[in-house]
């Protein structure tokens, strides 16, 4: 399970089946998601105007998406005026190539070790940047604690906010002891699994990388068009180190991360911390505008990433997914995520938001992508907590209709649905089907059926025994 | 006021006792209720599985079958929500049909919290997702249950969590569905209740199917059947 490529992933149900059988994983996820879920509910309940903030967040994002062309050009102009360089990337391959070339150009002589430090970034996970850099002989060091755990464990992130949520602290201690030496400063011999010790080991391991790095790669939570300012919110301070110490900073940011003005940012600085880490305010907020002489990186590059976003924008129902601010509140309340785990979603974006974002960014041609819109009971818990009011169930159902229309493998189901509708709209057919079901009820097994949906149902559940009489037969006997 | 019962296709064939109970409660309260016999299905399964073209004829048929009624009572939160939220979209109209989930009808239209029911058992209420998040039934079901003579209402741990049914989710993702359902059964057992009550038989069919397989001593029951139950019936 190493690397950032998701090609050839099994479908969601197949991957989820394995996850439901992993008792340790289930326990880790249940404990972690319920803790964050409860804390978020408290943090949100503190604000009397949460509903208004949520509505404002939704409106600002919708407005910005409607005028994205104008705001992106304004942003480019302002970043350039402030001494930065703006690059446009149509897809993952273009973005990876741009970053690779920039790192090579920044690295000094060929005898220098080619390496970058990284701020936790969903966009670079999405495009598989670390793997692309590795192919070009460049080592990317993750500096967020959880991303470090994932990287050292040859693992993949399974959560947007807490990528190592599937690991408990004993597993983390073992990964540190086993792997740190190969990447730099080894873990202390007597490392325990207390959070303070684990954090200290990571701090010492990372410190030498911060001090040595010439190039940093980040994403951004927000980009402000009116001044060309980028904003990163984080909790550990590693981001601040990466964003200020190296000479060159390269930020890869999805084009939908833009906000028109600083006044708009105010809304999101309230919505995001409470929704994601359940904090009133996040510990570190770093903002920068181009370059400033003698202060921070002297060379700044912004790579604006499309990678399926303009296609998503063209879909009038699906485009609301682009409002997402990556808070992960939907993951933490999702009962399916809690049982299936993040890896089953086969993408950097797991959980409910991933189930609607991934099939839009990547299309639905692969087995995993076509199965994602079905990875939900439509219970609606995600929509309830979303700080920008993305109606995830609505988009899921919308994408299901696209999958059944465009992808093979739904022919038998489509025929069954057509037959059901035929029976339901033709009274004689309906009566015959009902009568057949009732008259054979004694012959119908309730357990261990051999094929299809009946098999899937009876593997874990008994079927109810049908009654002797339908409701409408009773009605005829008693009310006519 | 002309009042119709939309029994739902699942209740019609698999859970007629819920439809019968709904009629009994309403008639006991002096409501004259019709059962338009042409009715079949609201189309929710087709729509939610990704077949809107197969759902649209059913929405049209529903509108025809229930035309002229002032209130349509449905003993299902999920079907009620589908007709209210999605039928207007499928039909290109602005107003939904006047559908009321049973507890909405009892409290909002008839303004009755006490319906003369008797059910001497310990009961936990599971707020199904569509009845709570889409229909926003809130405390209507528990207000009615608290007025049932002999009934002891106990707290269900993790009540707001989905049971894992999710329509065709239950067969497309059977392992996650069963894992969620098993947790719901465990919570119901933990609550100490003898019966798990809800406003949706499809969720109860899933929970009950698991409880039966796991040999957990908890029985699913639709809220209409508790509200219809009387002292005379229990004695008999």
Q: How would you describe what is shown here?
A:
The complex is a heterodimer of chains A (480) and B (236). Chain A is built from 23 helices and 10 strands. Chain A has helices spanning 12-21, 23-45, 50-66, 68-81, 92-106, 122-127, 129-135, 145-152, 169-183, 195-212, 238-244, 262-276, 309-313, 329-333, 335-340, 351-362, 367-371, 381-385, 392-406, 411-425, 427-439, 452-458, 471-479; strands at residues 85-89, 115-118, 139-142, 215-218, 222-224, 229-234, 248-254, 258-259, 284-289, 299-305. In chain A, strands 1-10-7-4-2-3 form a 6-stranded parallel β-sheet, sandwiched between helices. In chain A, strands 8-5-6-9 form a 4-stranded mixed β-sheet. Chain B folds into 2 domains: 3-109, Rossmann fold, CATH 3.40.50; 122-235, Rossmann fold. Chain B has 14 helices and 8 strands. In chain B, helix 11 packs across helix 12 (201-213). Chain B is globular and about 45 Å long. Chains A and B meet through helix 1, helix 15, helix 18, helix 19 and helix 20 of A and helix 1, helix 2, helix 3, helix 4 and helix 8 of B.
Attribute tags:
heterodimer; A: about 475 residues; alpha/beta; 2 domains; globular; B: Rossmann fold; Rossmann fold; four-stranded parallel β-sheet; 8 strands; about 10% strand
Please name the CATH architecture of the largest domain in chain B.
3-Layer(aba) Sandwich
- Mean pLDDT of chain B equals 97
Number of domains of chain A: 2
- Described by its quaternary structure, the protein is heterodimer
SS summary, helix count of chain B: 14
- Major sheet details of chain A: 6 strands, parallel
Strand content of chain B: 5-15%
Q: Largest interface here, residues on each chain? A: A-B, 66 and 64 residues
Q: Assign the CATH topology of the largest domain in chain B.
A: Rossmann fold
Q: How far is it from the N-terminal to the C-terminal residue of chain A, by CA?
A: 66 Å
Low-pLDDT parts of chain B are none
From the spread of the alpha carbons, the general shape of chain B counts as globular
CATH homologous superfamily of the largest domain in chain A, by name? NagB/RpiA/CoA transferase-like
Approximately what portion of the residues of chain A adopt beta-strand conformation? 5-15%
CATH class of the largest domain in chain A: Alpha Beta
Return Rg of chain B in Å.
17 Å
């Amino acid at each position: 399970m190493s690397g950032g490529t998701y090609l050839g992933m099994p479908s969601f149900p197949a991957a989820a089946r394995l996850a439901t059988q992993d008792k340790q994983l289930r326990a880790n996820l249940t404990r972690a998601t319920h803790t964050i879920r409860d804390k978020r509910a408290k943090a949100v309940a503190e604000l009397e105007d949460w509903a208004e903030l949520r509505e404002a967040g939704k409106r600002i994002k919708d407005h910005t998406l409607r005028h994205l062309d104008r705001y992106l050009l304004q942003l480019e102009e302002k970043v350039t005026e402030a001494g930065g360089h703006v690059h446009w990337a149509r897809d993952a391959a273009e973005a990876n190539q741009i970053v690779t070339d920039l790192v090579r150009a920044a690295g000094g002589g060929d005898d220098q070790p080619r390496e970058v430090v990284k701020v936790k970034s969903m966009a670079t996970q999405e495009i598989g940047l670390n793997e692309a850099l590795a192919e070009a002989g460049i080592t990317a060091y993750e500096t967020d604690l959880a991303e470090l755990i994932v990287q050292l464990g040859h693992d993949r992130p399974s959560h947007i906010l807490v990528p190592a949520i599937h690991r408990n602290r004993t597993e983390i201690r073992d990964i540190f002891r086993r792997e740190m030496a190969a990447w730099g400063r080894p873990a202390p011999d007597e490392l325990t699994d207390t959070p303070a010790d684990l954090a200290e080991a990571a701090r010492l391991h990372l410190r030498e990388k911060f001090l040595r790095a010439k190039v940093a790669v980040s994403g951004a939570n927000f980009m402000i068009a009116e001044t060309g300012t980028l904003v990163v919110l984080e909790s550990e301070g590693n981001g601040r180190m990466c964003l200020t110490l190296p000479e060159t900073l390269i930020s890869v940011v999805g084009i939908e991360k833009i906000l028109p003005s600083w006044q708009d940012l105010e809304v999101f600085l309230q919505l995001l911390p409470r929704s994601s880490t359940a904090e009133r305010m996040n510990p570190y907020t770093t903002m920068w505008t181009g370059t400033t002489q003698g202060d921070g990186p002297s060379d700044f590059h912004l790579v604006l990433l499309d990678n399926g976003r303009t296609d998503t924008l063209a879909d009038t129902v699906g485009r609301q997914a682009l409002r997402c601010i990556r808070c992960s509140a939907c993951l933490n309340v999702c009962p399916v995520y809690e049982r299936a785990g993040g890896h089953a979603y086969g993408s950097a974006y797991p959980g409910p938001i991933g189930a609607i974002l991934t099939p839009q960014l990547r299309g639905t041609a692969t087995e995993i992508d076509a199965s994602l819109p079905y990875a939900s009971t439509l219970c609606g818990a995600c929509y309830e907590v979303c700080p920008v009011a993305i109606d995830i169930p609505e988009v899921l159902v919308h994408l299901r209709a696209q999958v059944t229309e465009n992808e093979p493998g739904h022919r038998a189901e489509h025929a069954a649905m057509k037959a059901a509708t035929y029976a339901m709209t033709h009274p004689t057919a309906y009566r015959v089907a009902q009568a057949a079901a009732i008259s054979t009820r004694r012959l119908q097994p309730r357990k261990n059926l051999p094929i299809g949906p009946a098999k899937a149902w009876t593997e874990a559940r008994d079927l109810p025994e049908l009654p002797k009489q339908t409701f409408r037969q009773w009605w005829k006997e008693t009310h006519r | 006021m002309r009042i119709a019962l939309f029994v739902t296709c699942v209740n019609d064939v698999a859970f007629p006792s819920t439809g019968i109970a709904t009629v009994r409660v309403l008639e006991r309260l002096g409501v004259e209720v019709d059962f338009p016999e042409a009715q079949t299905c609201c189309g929710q399964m087709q729509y939610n599985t990704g077949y809107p073209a197969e759902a649209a004829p059913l929405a049209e048929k529903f509108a025809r079958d229930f035309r002229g009624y002032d209130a349509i009572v449905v003993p299902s939160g999920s079907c009620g929500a589908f007709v209210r939220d999605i039928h207007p979209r499928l039909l290109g109209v602005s107003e939904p049909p006047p559908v009321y989930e049973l507890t909405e009808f009892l409290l909002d239209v008839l303004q009755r919290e006490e319906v003369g029911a008797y059910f001497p058992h310990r009961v936990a209420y599971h707020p199904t997702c569509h009845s709570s998040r889409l229909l926003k039934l809130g405390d209507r079901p528990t207000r009615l249950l608290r007025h049932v003579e002999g009934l002891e209402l106990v707290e269900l741990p993790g009540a707001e969590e989905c049971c894992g049914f999710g329509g065709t989710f239950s067969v497309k993702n059977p392992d996650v569905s069963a894992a969620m359902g098993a947790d719901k059964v465990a919570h119901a057992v933990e609550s100490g209740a003898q019966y798990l009550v809800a406003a949706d038989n499809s969720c109860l069919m899933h929970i009950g199917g698991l409880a039966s397989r796991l040999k957990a001593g908890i029985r699913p029951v639709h809220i209409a059947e508790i509200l219809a139950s009387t002292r005379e019936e229990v004695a008999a």
